[in-house]
Specification:
two-stranded antiparallel ribbon, Rossmann fold, binds S-adenosyl-L-homocysteine, alpha/beta, 32% helix, 218 residues
Length: 218
């Protein structure tokens, strides 16, 4: 299929995806609108582009996957339910799709990825889409991005066994962290920093993310 062909069909299939997400419980109109607009097929290999609007995760190389659209929508919706966010930290850029969703909805997004080639591809895609309010760092995101903190939102796309202390510390008071936690069995959690030393945690639902790994790869 040529690029234009994909462009034309993608608008229709994207509409179907949005309907599906709505039926699955995603109700935030801003989030649904961004998913309706964003060309997810540009975030996967051409060979997989025809599957980009299925509600599934897909391989992006390096043993990693682009998150399922439902997951991206759910995490973004949960993050924004605490009110508009200005500075958001994302751990695990991956394909850059979640990054692009955030870029459309928050003032500044700071995204950390440990696998350099993935980060570079994501950076190129965001430039192509003219999304300029994103800052990238190649590092182990388990340490957050202290120099740019505190953040009023943090989204983590890979699961640690325990929530890293650094992420809690880099959350501003009033800030919200959305993170999967666990190993073979995981749950998606929401953590609000309600005061300097006071956090409130809530389990959102079961989850299946790639593990948060330490170190970084060039
Ligand atoms: N939301 C992304 C998810 C990609 S999968 C997308 O939809 O494309 C999770 C990503 O987290 C992978 O790219 C993986 O390399 C990255 N990751 C895992 N551990 C990490 C760490 N400690 N620091 C930064 N990125 C990490």
């Amino acid at each position: 299929m040529d690029i234009q062909g994909i462009g034309m069909t993608s608008r229709r299939t994207r509409e179907r995806l949005v309907t599906r997400l709505y039926e699955a419980g995603i109700k935030d109109p801003q989030v649904l609108e961004v998913i309706r607009q964003l060309p997810r097929h540009l975030f996967v290999d051409e060979a997989l582009a025809h599957r980009a609007y299925e509600d599934t995760a897909l391989p992006i190389g390096f043993n990693q996957t682009i998150s399922q659209p439902y997951t991206v929508a759910r995490m973004t919706e949960a993050l924004l339910a605490a009110g508009p966010r200005k500075r958001v930290l994302e751990i695990g850029t991956g394909s850059g799709y979640q990054t692009a969703v955030l870029a459309c909805l928050v003032a500044q997004t700071y995204s950390v990825e440990r696998i350099l080639p993935l980060q570079e591809r994501a950076r190129t895609r965001l430039q192509q889409l003219n999304l300029r309010n994103v800052h990238f760092k190649h590092a182990d995101g388990g340490f957050g991005w202290a120099e740019k903190g505190p953040f009023d939102g943090i989204i983590c796309a890979a699961a640690p066994e325990e929530i890293p202390e650094e992420l809690l510390q880099q959350l501003a008071v009033g800030g919200r962290l959305i993170i999967p936690v666990g190993g073979a069995s995981q749950e998606l959690r929401q953590v609000d920093r309600i005061d300097e030393g006071q956090y409130r945690q809530q389990a959102l639902e079961g989850a299946r993310f790639v593990p948060l790994l330490s170190g970084s790869i060039r």
